Amino acid sequence: MQALFSFVPPAQSGQSGLSLTRLAGFLREVIMHISSGRWLYGLFLALSTSLLWGVLPIQLKEVLQVMDPVTVTWYRLALAGSLLLAYLAAARRLPSFAALGRRGWGLLVLAVVGLTANYVLYLMGLELLSSGTTQLVIQVAPILLLLGSVFIFRERFSLGQGVGLLLMLLGFAFFFNQRLGELLTSLSNYTVGVLTVLAAAFVWTFYGLAQKQLLVVWNSVQVMMVIYLACALLLTPWAQPLQVLRLNPLQGWLLLACCLNTLVAYGAFAEALAHWEASRVSATLALTPLVTFVSVALAASWWPEYVQPEQVNAIAYAGAVIVVLGSALTALGPSLLEAWRQKRARVC
């Protein structure tokens, strides 16, 4: 597995290693992740992303009343991929598959299978759980990606990240306080839903690790275009596009909003990284489950015929806050530790 992720693009035209063109592209990718210093704009974009991702499960849950998870995923990925294809074609920046090589193709297949399974399993879990619970459980995904990076890429795991991980585990224990017995002793619909979302988080890790290596050859937009379209193609035999005719006008607009959310939220996230430190962007995105809980509460009071309120107690809400704090600390851990070391060095 580690050999697969140790990806170096194949040599071309008698050159060894990266060609100058691809090296320049890689350097542009690195430069794109250097903060511009416009932190307020970066914060706005990160909050916008958190808002879009926070309301997404509420929109999806209404659409899932008529359409199955595979078909919903097919529409989301096909539309998003098609729009990216049109953009890249107009800009004459379509990716070159010749640069992949055998190992690159293996990474691409892993990314496609991982993201397809993640999208479908997430929706299957959402059918069995509330929007807030689903969004909180999926917070495990970036933690699994972090742990995968530690084992595969030998990245460091700091003390702050360890504390953040423990906080998340404590928060989950509080959040599930009403149903811990059910989760541990029976295979109810609720338990199956939680396990399904955890499976979605697990397979997303493979997608995240593979995509990280594919960025050596392609830029982020090219990677997402190829993966979205490949995922849609993979799902085509099981998708039922005519289900869209059964949607009422509200559900049709919500499906369109879900499709556009895939693009707009990701675009805002990528732009936020250009103006603010990645750790701070990640910490801001940790607020997403709280956005979902607040959005569900508001929607349930405004449109009770469409949205059901969360059936959790005050301890569970406190647990959700602890999970968010733990996730934010995990993201900020390395930078906080480095800042503390620099401050201590100045004092000494």
Which tags fit this structure?
single chain, 15 helices, mainly alpha, 348 residues
Walk me through this protein's architecture.
This protein is mainly α and 348 residues long. It has one domain (21-347). Helix content is 75%, strand content 0%. The chain has helices spanning 2-5, 20-32, 39-63, 69-90, 101-128, 131-137, 140-152, 159-175, 180-185, 189-214, 220-235, 249-275, 278-285, 288-302, 314-347. Helix 8 packs antiparallel against helix 15 (314-347) and helix 13 (278-285) packs antiparallel against helix 15. It starts with a helix and ends with a helix.
In short:
This protein is mainly α. Helix content is 75%, strand content 0%.
Topology of this structure?
Elements lengths: L1 H4 L14 H13 L6 H25 L5 H22 L10 H28 L2 H7 L2 H13 L6 H17 L4 H6 L3 H26 L5 H16 L13 H27 L2 H8 L2 H15 L11 H34 L1
Helix pairs in contact: 3-6, 3-12, 3-13, 3-14, 4-11, 4-12, 5-10, 5-11, 6-14, 7-10, 8-15, 13-15
Taken in chain order, the helices and strands follow as HHHHHHHHHHHHHHH
What gap, in angstroms, lies between the N and C termini?
A: 44 Å
Large-scale geometry: globular
Provide the structure class.
mainly alpha
Tell me about the largest β-sheet.
none
**Parts with pLDDT < 50 across at least 5 consecutive residues:** 11-33
Number of helices: 15
Number of strands: 0
Number of domains: 1
Q: Bin the helical content.
A: over 70%
Question: Radius of gyration, Cα only, in angstroms?
Answer: 21 Å
What is the typical, i.e. mean, pLDDT? 81
- Approximately how much beta-strand content do the residues carry? under 5%
